[in-house]
Amino acid sequence: MTNIGILGAGRVGANLANKLVAAGHHVTLGSRGPGDPAARAAGVAPQIAFADQRTTARTADIVINATPGDSALDRLTDLRTELAGKILIDVSNATRDADDGLPGDLCYPGSSLAEKLQRALPDTHVVKTLNTMLFMVMTAPETLATPPTVYVSGDDENAKKAVTGLLADLGWQPAWIEDLGGISTARATEAMILVVPHILRRHGFKPFAVSLAR
């Protein structure tokens, strides 16, 4: 059992929390405040604890960033002390919205949120993953008609090994996990978000992942 803290209690955070608790982990959801009614109404399992984000980061062994990517860098940099020595799994995409509210442009063209986080948090092991799919696929990859791909980027091999173990708990088979290498490779997967709004506009909000076909 791993003590996992999830920053962000919206659909992404709640979805991950439910699956990880079912897999036997202790999970704390970090919301804007421990009494945040929006977080309480997120439909999470009763075993999941709630705390503010600073407490969540401080008390967890592994932290998942499921907060909005366009503001995550400032938010997580403020938690530098709490995140020191820990694995930070970043599943968000840093984008600016188009007029219809879907992702439009990247916040960090030529770089990535994951790289920015690693630079800002040198004592933290940042691993990028799960950012190339709709949120429901993160915890149910087997429901897609074709085998999906989840990409992993990070500089620390032990951290990536730990994250791969959590991906298995979420339902990802080894053949579906693609280790791309160091954290700089996250700029490739973060750029994949630019295809997502076009797919959603044409086909609606249906589960899919941006995957490799071999």
Largest sheet: 8 strands, mixed
How much strand? 15-25%
Total E-strand runs: 10
Q: For the residues shown, what is the average pLDDT? A: 93
What is the count of helical runs?
10
Distance between the termini: 34 Å
CATH architecture: 3-Layer(aba) Sandwich
**What's the CATH H-level homologous superfamily?**
NAD(P)-binding Rossmann-like Domain
The arrangement of helices and strands along the chain is EHEHEHEHHEEEHEHEHEHH
Helix proportion: 25-40%
- Order of adjacent strands in the largest pleated sheet: 3-2-1-4-5-8-9-10
In CATH terms, what is the fold-level topology?
A: Rossmann fold
Shape: globular
The CATH class designation is Alpha Beta
Enumerate the spans where pLDDT stays under 50 for 5 or more consecutive residues: none
Q: What structural class do the secondary elements suggest?
A: alpha/beta
Radius of gyration: 16 Å
Query: How many distinct domains?
Result: 1
Structure description:
- It is built from 10 helices and 10 strands.
- It is of the alpha/beta class.
- The chain has one domain (3-203): Rossmann fold, CATH 3.40.50.
- It has an 8-stranded mixed sheet with strand order 3-2-1-4-5-8-9-10, sandwiched between helices. Strands 6-7 form a two-stranded antiparallel sheet.
- α4 packs parallel to α6 (113-120).
- The radius of gyration is 16 Å and the shape is globular.
- The mean pLDDT is 93.
Keywords:
single chain; 214 residues; alpha/beta; Rossmann fold; eight-stranded mixed sheet; two-stranded antiparallel ribbon; 35% helix; 21% strand
